[in-house]
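This part of the workshop introduces the protein records we will be handling. Getting from the letters to the tokens is the skill we practise here. An example says more than a description, so a record of this kind follows:
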Amino acid sequence: MTDQAGPVFSALSDPTRRTVVEALATRETATATELASELPVTRQAVSKHLTALGSAGLVAAERRGRETHYRLTPEALSQALSWMEQVGSQWEKRLAALRRRFPE
């Protein structure tokens, strides 16, 4: 089994990338220039963050003339959420067993 959630968590460990994901979640597509106008970083920095997000499968790029439009691809997020739900379920079971064994 491959670790598909790892690259997602790695990409989302950066606060600027999380901000870019949040910005893309509010619209269908955006260019790096549009995103940079909303963030306190340069267009070149936004492009690098978009590349990292794309490598993790979180963003897809589409060339339209001279501009590249980016859109959020939620499939990678779904895989990471599925992993978190699985691990969370295991911990819930363990905590419930501890509560039964050591009631307050």
Q: What stands out?
A: The CA atoms of residues 23 and 38 lie 9 Å apart. The domain at 5-101 is CATH 1.10.10.10 (Arc Repressor Mutant, subunit A).
